Amino acid sequence: MMGSRDGGARARARERPRSDPGDSRDLSGRVSVATTTAESYRSERSVGSSASGRGIALLDAFRSCFVPAAEAHARSPETSLSDDFHPSQQLSQSISSQGSSSGSNFERRRSIRGLYGPMHRNSSEKDKDIPGSTKFSLPEIQKATKNFSPNLKIGQGGSGTVYKGQLNDGTLVAVKRAKKNVYDKHMGREFRNEIETLQCIEHLNLVRFHGYLEFGGEQLIIVEYVPNGNLREHLDCVNERLLEFSLRLDIAIDVAHAITYLHTYSDQPVIHRDIKSSNILLTNNCRAKVADFGFAKLAPTDASHVSTQVKGTAGYLDPEYLRTYQLTEKSDVYSFGVLLVELITGRRPIEPRRTIVERVTAKWAMEKFVEGNAIQTLDPNLEATDAINLAVEKMYELALQCLATTKRNRPSMRRCAEILWSIRKDYRELTFGFCANRIYFLRL
């Protein structure tokens, strides 16, 4: 599949048990659709007793990502190793309750969401921390941004301008200032829609909402400031900020966790509708945070889809959504597949200056993958190794499923996250050895 250059890596892959998550089928079965239910995933874990210990450790490590940061930081150094490889009792109970027939879907979502947040405030602070129009005054924001100084402008889009600011307590924030256009009703709806969405979500890999202000002709949204630019800038090597392959894999997992939370664990399912590299912000240690909820849609829990006007970014749009105007969570899965290709190749989704064959990056990359030449699509700024070759093959297997033309053939975002965890685990074992992989989990 990958040629003689990575024969050693393929041999090691064949030696791994088939029950490995994210490798639930043979590598030759590229087009097969991954299992999308947690029940099927757990049943796969029981196949092959020789692999059960390794599989349980991997699944538990994956689940531990959904424990709030405050709880994780409270662990003592003596217990951090075992805790990072086993879910908390609360998490185990909430996951097992998903399979029971008692209780509504809404109550199950609420019980699991408690594991995510609030991450930055305790129950005694909850009432006074509810975001709203009275949280900030216009003079306070004008002071924080030095009266919206052009020197503090950090971004600009079709709906407004983003400024860096510093509140009175020293907190750095990003202030999104909506365009003042009394004739554009869509801008007002987009502003209110973003606030409605941001108020009901909180996760480590989502930008944190601080509040908003609507006063006179001003419409302002205040969120946390993420200092290291966006993913697209890093893929373009702006200011020589090259992303190593291991960091790209970490970012893919962070984004998968964020979207999994939106689809599955928030009080009401949220469809982002604009997953793209420029909406993925990076912290100083390159942890990803999904931003910009202007196009987000709260999905009804009692319907299979939402009929709505098409919104999104060219190159990332789900073709089935374009054709039917029916928006589902699988539309985000399609966009995530494009993002995976972007992470591997470093290219933008559409590059008009390239030849016809290479102009649409995802189409070109998938054709190369099917031909067995996936490694030819690797970002030329990266040096290929056996571990990278194998990881690229498996990431393309996942991307191919995400990019299926119909939503029923795409995996869930939770399944995507599980598969990527497995890919990263194998990549780190091939690169650093098993001990280094365990040490890495302590950092999470």
TrEMBL record:
PROSITE patterns: PROTEIN_KINASE_ATP, PROTEIN_KINASE_DOM, PROTEIN_KINASE_ST
Limits of the Protein kinase domain: 148-422
Keyword Metal-binding: no
Keywords in alphabetical order: ATP-binding, Kinase, Nucleotide-binding, Serine/threonine-protein kinase, Transferase
GO biological process: pollen development
Binding-site positions, ATP: 180
The EC number(s) this enzyme carries: 2.7.11.1
Keyword Nucleotide-binding part of the UniProt annotation: yes
SMART domains recorded: S_TKc (SM00220)
Catalytic activity, reaction form: L-threonyl-[protein] + ATP = O-phospho-L-threonyl-[protein] + ADP + H(+); L-seryl-[protein] + ATP = O-phospho-L-seryl-[protein] + ADP + H(+)
Start-end of Low complexity biased regions: 88-104
Compositional bias per record (Polar residues), positions renumbered to this chain: 33-50
Stretch list, region Disordered: 1-50, 77-107, 114-133
Ranges of compositional bias, category Basic and acidic residues: 7-28
Pfam families assigned: Pkinase
Molecular function in Gene Ontology: ATP binding; protein serine/threonine kinase activity
PANTHER family: LEAF RUST 10 DISEASE-RESISTANCE LOCUS RECEPTOR-LIKE PROTEIN KINASE-LIKE 1.4, PROTEIN KINASE DOMAIN-CONTAINING PROTEIN
Family: Belongs to the protein kinase superfamily.
Record's protein name: non-specific serine/threonine protein kinase
Native organism: Leersia perrieri
